Amino acid sequence: MPLKLRPLSYALGAEVCDISIARPMSESVFGDIYHAFLDYGILLLRDQDVTREQHIEFSRRFGELDRHDSLPRDRNPQYPELLMVTNEPKPNGKPGDGKYTGHLWHSDMSFTLRPSLGSLLRSVKVPPVGGDTMFANMTKAYDDLSEGMKKLIEPLHGIHLGKRKIVDLTAERAAESARLNPPIAQPIVRVHPETGHKALYIGEKVECFAGLTRAESKPIIDFLCRHATQPKYTYRHQWRANDIVIWDNRCTMHAALGDYDDDFPRHMERTTVLGTPSGHIVEAPQD
Predict the structure, then answer these.
(1) What is the average pLDDT across 149-159?
(2) Do the Cβ atoms of 220 and 214 come closer than 8 Å?
(3) Which residues neighbour 151 within 8 Å (Cβ) at sequence distance 6 or greater?
(4) No. of helices (H) and no. of strands (E), the chain
(5) What is the CATH number for 191?
(6) Which of 52, 94, 128, 189 lies 20 to 30 Å (CA to CA) from residue 207?
(7) How many C-beta atoms surround the C-beta of residue 30 within 10 A?
């Protein structure tokens, strides 16, 4: 039977209907899912009441999984393939660091030398209202740029940093983060290794362009981020419990919206599929 798909928006995304990853899945069916993943950039699977082991096993069909060595405090101690994205309190009573995870537009693990191919995020607990995630189609955004802008940004490399807001940041933890995640320069325009399409590789975490100052870089970074996040390029996902959303980090970016009441838990668990090596380590950007 052909895969049943329901488009999620004009820009990108499709729901895969009548599929459970808890049941055995043939290579043929998974092949259809993977082709849809390449075609739509984002896939949604609803009502996936699965175990952590099942989540990890299905994710491995997309490729080798990241064990999140660059984010050791955020991974599950028993399952390092799972990154915890949660606002649930820590043992010391302070909010979980995941409360602030992903609030800027970004592509997962862009601050590493092997940025993510794809991510599979499972919603375990969701607030009754809000906590949505926005996605942007970076291929369409690139295609619609003027030829002059394409020529301008083609040789540029953006410097990506792994820094983010942490509730109880200490000098020790800041030093650990800097050691684990040095600045990485990534090309602003990347060619998708499977589709061959060019896409913008930018985000609000890009500090500046290699060889340019922050002041020189900021107008271009701001323009590209505003351009790529226009409504015509985006999809807003409203989470339900037991959703799994799969996205291609090579041609999309996303942002978690903090539009929910912190009195309600928002607990997500993410596997991250390793991509092809990209970028190089650079010195920290200077003003």
Answers:
(1) 98
(2) no
(3) none
(4) 6, 16
(5) 3.60.130.10
(6) 94
(7) 15
Is the C-alpha dihedral spanning 27, 30, 31, 32 positive or negative?
positive
- pTM assigned to the model: 0.93
Please indicate, yes or no, if residue 83 is contained in any of the structural domains: yes
- Mean pLDDT (the chain, rounded): 92
Coil vs helix vs strand at 186: strand
Give φ, ψ of 282 to 5 degrees. -130, 170
Residue 238, Cβ neighbours under 10 Å: how many?
Answer: 11
Per-residue model confidence (pLDDT) at position 257: 93
Question: Is position 283 within any domain?
Answer: no
What's the number of domains the chain is made of?
A: 1
Is 100's pLDDT higher than 80?
no
Q: What's the pLDDT score for residue 167?
A: 53
User: Residue 49 domain-assigned?
Assistant: yes
Locus of tokens 């500090």: 207
Range of the domain at 255: 5-87+99-276
Span 84-94, pLDDT tens digits: 999 888 777 77
| CB contact burial 150-183 (16+ within 10 A = b; e otherwise) | eeebeebbbbbbbebeeeeeeeeeeeebeeebeb
Cα 19 from Cα 38, distance rounded (Å): 18
The C-alpha atoms of residue 22 and residue 238 are separated, in whole angstroms, by 23
Tell whether the torsion through CA atoms of 66, 136, 212 and 151 is positive or negative.
Answer: positive
The answer to whether residue 239 is domain-embedded is: yes
